[in-house]
Amino acid sequence: MITVHHLNNSRSQRVLWMLEELEVPYEIRYYERDPKTMQAPPSLKKVHPLGKSPVITDGDLVVAESGVIIDYLARTYGKDTMPPPGSGQAWLDYTYWLHYAEGSLMPPLLMRLVFEKVKTSPMPFFVKPVAKGIANKTNQTFIGPMIDTHMDFVESHLSKSTWFLGDNLSAADFQMSFPLEASVARGIVGKNRPHITEWVERVHARPAYRRALEKGGEYAFAD
Ligand SMILES: N[C@@H](CCC(=O)N[C@@H](CS)C(=O)NCC(=O)O)C(=O)O
């Protein structure tokens, strides 16, 4: 039996969504973020030394990193419904999106979040304007343009196909869901990027996604 070690408001939502689409039986073990630090509880380190979510267990196997989990589930349980491409361009495209989501798109989104947090963090009043100035400048001149380049790229890709790998939902969509729905929820992506917005709406409208949301509980990036 698969166990999803699920943290509230986290990337493991994409794993629940995938399992619901695959209609594979699984159970959820729930973990709550510390409301002040937003860190996962130490108990998650008992499953995997990094203590991050998602992580799943399947019998004796412990599988960590969303991209690996999604690929593992597609290979093990999706052979009939969502088989991962074996080779050639189709395999390259599939692997590309699995890596791109966490390896290229998430880092600037995370940097933006950190600099936004700096602005509201407690600090001596006389330091605040300086910290705020540095955070704003960094986001405007460095991180913002980097995110724009990524979003233009993804927008252009989605203007050509319904799902990331064409007409059919695939593992690439589960992996790309977290950065894109977070970007829409935070207002980074809006009407100026209609294909990303519509893709996120399409994801959120799927019955399997709604079931995953209901089972997973608190998740800030879907309505
Ligand atoms: N690249 C990893 C990132 C894992 C990660 O950072 N997860 C966050 C939740 S979205 C987490 O566990 N945060 C709590 C913490 O760091 O204590 C993946 O995709 O699995």
TrEMBL record:
Give, as one word, the top-level EC class: transferase
The EC designation for this entry is 2.5.1.18
Q: Domain GST C-terminal, which positions?
A: 87-223
**Positions in coiled-coil regions:** none
Entry GO terms, CC: cytoplasm
Catalytic activity entry: RX + glutathione = an S-substituted glutathione + a halide anion + H(+)
Superkingdom assignment:
Bacteria
| Protein name in the entry | glutathione transferase
**The species this protein was found in:** Marinobacter daqiaonensis
